[in-house]
Specification:
By secondary structure, this protein is an alpha/beta fold. Helix content is about 45%, strand content about 10%. It is built from 21 helices and 13 strands. The chain is globular, with a radius of gyration of 25 Å. The structure holds 6-O-phosphono-beta-D-fructofuranose.
């Protein structure tokens, strides 16, 4: 049976309101409301957010906040911050906010002070990172480490890979960083092909230490290493470290427990880049930089916990997402960083949002009777402008966009950054206000081209502006999206912290791998899969 919260008073009020405002034009809203920009501009951590180009009135926001109230978003947030078991299907807290609590704080959860435990691990990470960065840590043959390969997948890859990409200008340029995730052997082979085993270290990052892709890549890395180092198994201790919650499995894999960095089951994979999973980040940017990253996260955590609802940026952005997904029925959401260093940010957000909120049942196990997470996608500007922005401007599908921009560049180069920012602003302008037929005619556009050149506008954007992409700024941004995702999950009444939907595919793949290699299928395969297996075998036989 569906939990019909779409019948609730707040939802119904929004439905009625939507019918009256859905055709309102941003041009009109700006023309009739002098204070709009001031009222709809927000600050959180390093983030300045302009929400004025959204298709909302003051009443829309009031009604959305009433929905958040009705759905108990604030009390669920407080429960999360206290360490209650908000991840109910796995019966555990979702306590990523504890990963960035300052050392002097304490938070006792299930009888343990998690802040003390977090800082113990941070201290070990710090000592280890300093050894690697200073060259004190030596490989098996006595040479210093010049390449770090993070082996992990999902949250154990996307966070570290995105963070390294974002912060590489702050990184130790004498160490190369590579990220291997795909079980496709090409990923590992390409990552190590120009590396020297004597100077390479792997960080095997896996919360469970059972994920087949990571275990397969780690085993192949070990072989590559031993082959390069003359087969001496003791070499592993100097070249492979692990990050996991499953320290027994780490030891069973042959990694010295003193080279293992732990975290806890209350850190979800997609919420783990600021746990020990961030070890490669800390080696890259140094412990101080990592501290700044954590401070950025914490600043936005505090904002989310403390800012009043009507000034609470993650809450409002989350509610705007609901407005478009459930009331306008728009199915995707684009994130467009105008910052090349954030090239992997949309991919990171895909996991955060879609693995968290791609759900169809409520916490109680009943069907959600409204739509949940949008498809999240994006590419850095200005590249996207020359590919998919055509659809954003004139397509029939409407896509709310987040534009992320920085006032100053990380590395200045001539006029580049002015042009980049001008483009970011211009896109938001064009999306919101478009170009009318009259404007086109007045500019002398021939009648036959007017419909083609007309820009409908009225396409909403969030404009996030930060001073510069720093570790602090990155932490602020990630925490912002974590809490936007949380807000939406809380409104939909779903468990944003489990991911049961990925299990079946994993199970089936484990069964199919030996079949592809030539074994009999353990059970009758469906016709399509059987035919494809047959074809794979035949193609391989033919060479
Ligand atoms: O794909 C499912 C998933 O469990 C993700 O949630 C997680 O980030 C990823 O696999 C990797 O898991 P692990 O860190 O345990 O190897």
């Amino acid at each position: 049976m569906a939990e019909t919260f779409s019948d609730s008073p707040a939802w119904q009020a929004l439905r009625r309101h939507h019918a009256t405002v859905r055709d309102l034009q941003l041009r009109e809203l700006f023309a009739t409301d002098a204070d709009r920009v001031e009222r709809l501009t927000f600050e959180a951590g390093d983030i300045h957010a302009d929400l004025s180009k959204h298709r909302v009135t003051a009443e829309t926001l009031a009604l959305l906040l009433a929905l958040a109230d009705e759905r108990g978003v604030a009390s669920r947030r407080d429960a999360m911050f206290r360490g209650e078991h908000v991840n109910s299907t796995e019966d555990r807290p979702a306590l990523h906010i504890a990963l960035r609590l300052p050392r002097e704080r304490s938070l006792v959860v299930d009888g343990r002070d998690v802040v003390r435990e977090v800082h113990e691990v941070l201290d070990r990470m710090r000592a280890f990172s300093e050894q690697v960065r200073s060259g004190e840590w030596r490989g098996h043959t006595g040479r210093r480490i010049r390449a770090v390969v993070n082996i992990g997948i999902g949250g154990s890859d996307l966070g570290p890979a995105m963070a390294y990409g974002a912060l590489r200008a702050y990184s130790d340029r004498d160490i190369a960083f590579r990220f291997v995730s795909n079980v496709d052997g090409a990923d590992l082979l390409e990552a190590v092909r120009d590396l020297d085993p004597e100077t390479t270290m792997a960080i095997v990052s896996s919360k469970t230490f059972t994920t087949v892709e990571t275990m397969t890549n780690a085993a192949s890395f070990k072989e590559w290493l031993l082959e390069g180092l003359g087969g001496e198994r003791t070499a592993v201790a100097k070249h492979v470290v692990a990050v996991s919650t499953n320290l027994d499995a780490v030891a069973a894999f042959g990694i010295d427990p003193s080279n293992a960095f732990g975290f806890w089951d209350w850190v979800g994979g997609r919420y783990s880049m600021d746990s020990a999973i961030g070890l490669s980040t800390m080696i890259a940017i140094g412990p101080e930089g990592f501290g700044d990253l954590l401070a950025g996260f914490h600043a936005v955590d505090r904002h989310f916990a403390e800012a009043p609802p009507e000034r609470n940026l993650p809450l409002l952005m989350g509610l705007l997402g609901i407005w478009y997904r459930d009331f306008f029925d728009w199915q995707t959401h684009a994130v467009l960083p105008y910052e090349q260093y954030l090239a992997r940010f949309p991919a990171y957000l895909q996991q955060l949002v879609m693995e968290s909120n791609g759900k169809r049942v409520t916490l109680a196990g009943t069907a959600v009777d409204v739509d949940t997470a949008p498809v999240v996608w994006g590419e850095p500007g200005t590249n996207g402008q020359h590919s998919f922005h055509q659809l954003l401007h004139q397509g029939t599908a409407l896509v709310p966009c987040d534009i992320v921009a920085f006032a100053s560049p990380v590395e200045p180069l001539g006029r580049h950054h002015d042009l980049l920012l001008a483009n970011a602003l211009a896109q938001a302008q064009a999306l919101a206000f478009g170009r009318t037929k009259d404007e086109l005619r007045a500019a002398g556009v021939p009648d036959r081209l007017v419909p083609h050149k007309q820009m409908p506008g009225n396409r909403p954007t969030t404009f996030l502006l930060l001073p510069r992409l720093t570790p602090f700024a990155l932490g602020s941004l990630v925490a912002l999206y974590e809490h936007v995702t949380f807000t939406q999950g809380a409104v939909w009444g779903i468990d944003s912290f489990d991911q049961w939907g990925v299990e079946l595919g994993k199970e089936l793949a484990v069964k199919l791998a030996p079949v592809i290699a030539g074994d009999e299928a353990p059970e009758q395969l469906d016709g399509s899969t059987a035919a494809l297996v047959e074809r794979i075998r035949r193609l391989r036989d033919e060479g």
